[in-house]
Amino acid sequence: MPRPAHLAALAAVALAACGGADPRVADEAVPLVATLSATATPGAQKLLAGDRAGARGAFESALGANPDDLGALNDLAVSYFLEGHAEAARRLLDEVVAAGTPRAQQAALVNLGELYALEGYLTAAQAYLETARGIDPSRPEPWYALALLADARGDATAAREAVREALRLDDGAAARAGFAYLYAEERAHLEALIAEQAGDRAAAATRWREVGQGRFGTLSQAAERHLGAD
């Protein structure tokens, strides 16, 4: 395992080793959400504002200043992922899971769940997300991701229960404010589930139509199920 002082170098090597952007997603892919360890940092603010390159530079600077900050390593991995470097992101996330604080580990596990779900390995994604939830069940982020995955897999009951619990824990929507989205369908899917939970059928239907017109067959099928049930 690399020592903490070498984490900045690990990040650079991981990105260089993976070369260009990774191939696009598998036929059975399910996009979920990516989550940051902290939202108030300069890098997080840049990332959430859409400045991915600026965010990457800020996270790298944070790691250079404090190599022990594995939360920043998680967030750097998210920036790599959003730039299309999934394998580089995976290497960093594995390091966070191995050596991070429980909070950083939980965020990294949620993000690994998204990586595996996008590759179509839904059972593995489920295992990562359940492990993340087990670290601290009072955090809403794993619950949101589990709701999205359950819905895409056609388990309506599990999806409703998970999103209900996520919303209960996320009073004020602070956790959702820390989500990063690689695809527009991710945000639309989450907003559709939330609108349904709130009883706003019109808003939910609008979001489901957006989901259904997207690039993911798994989500198009989910949208058809929901629109057909109205």
TrEMBL record:
<dbReference type="InterPro" id="IPR011990">
    <property type="entry name" value="TPR-like_helical_dom_sf"/>
</dbReference>
<protein>
    <recommendedName>
        <fullName>Tetratricopeptide repeat protein</fullName>
    </recommendedName>
</protein>
<dbReference type="InterPro" id="IPR019734">
    <property type="entry name" value="TPR_rpt"/>
</dbReference>
<dbReference type="Pfam" id="PF14559">
    <property type="entry name" value="TPR_19"/>
</dbReference>
<dbReference type="Pfam" id="PF13181">
    <property type="entry name" value="TPR_8"/>
</dbReference>
